[in-house]
Amino acid sequence: METSPKLPVALVVDDDPDMLGTLVRCLESDGYEVLAAQSRDEVESIADEADWIDVLVTDIFLGDGWGGEVAVRVRQDHPELAVVFISGRAHEDPVLRHGIQEHMVFLEKPFTFSALTEAVLRARS
Description:
- The protein has five helices and seven strands.
- By secondary structure, it is an alpha/beta fold.
- It has helices spanning 17-29, 40-49, 67-77, 94-98, 113-124, and strands at 9-13, 33-37, 55-59, 61-62, 65-66, 82-87, 104-108.
- The strands form two sheets. A five-stranded parallel beta sheet has the order 2-1-3-6-7, with helices on both faces. A two-stranded antiparallel sheet has the order 4-5.
- Helix 2 runs parallel beside helix 3.
């Protein structure tokens, strides 16, 4: 009996419910199993329980934290994690002004579904 290949897993974090829903729909339509969180606390719970996460897509400015801290926390349990940071206020982030690591990609809001798909592929390559 053949088993289907496991879908890649994306963890998506945004404190705006509408944006979170859009990100989830986009990545699901692109073939990802999507885990969604609206807060840093939710991310920590999901990361602790997940067996594997391929990519983290997170807003930089969250209501209860900073996306960079979220990425560091999730990479503790998932060291091969690729990261896509999203923000409409990139000019306010000191990390983005000084560069990000090679496993990370930045995508400025607003963006298209295809731009998100491309950013995820770049982060994972």
